Amino acid sequence: MQEIVIRPHAIKRAQEMGVSQADIRSCVNEPEVSYPSHESYGPNNWIAQRGGIAVAYAIELGIIVVVSVLERTQDQYERAS
């Protein structure tokens, strides 16, 4: 299993949503759905979905870096400018 680092922003979002770090790790390690993020986010950026959450993460030097936690939705997220 790859190392997972959860950035402060993702920890804050998870706390606001009542999501545990174990839930985040489970989402990344055993997603129901996983797909690459929009190309504007750069290479090696992914979205994993499991249950009611979506986790945005990057793979940096073989380490999974969780950057945000979102509510799972069918709508497409748009990047803020």
What does this structure look like?
This protein has 81 residues and is an alpha+beta fold. The chain has a single domain (4-71), classed as 2-Layer Sandwich (YaeB-like fold), CATH 3.30.2310. 23% of the residues lie in helices and 37% in strands. The protein has two helices and five strands. It has helices at 8-17, 21-29, and strands spanning 4-6, 33-36, 45-50, 53-60, 63-71. Strands 1-5-4-3-2 form a five-stranded mixed β-sheet. A hairpin with a 2-residue loop joins strand 4 and strand 5 (63-71). The longest helix has 10 residues, at 8-17. The radius of gyration is 12 Å and the shape is globular.
Structural class of the helices, strands and pairings?
alpha+beta
Tally of separate helices: 2
**Poorly predicted parts:** none
Q: At CATH's second level, what is the architecture? A: 2-Layer Sandwich
Topology as a string of helices (H) and strands (E): EHHEEEE
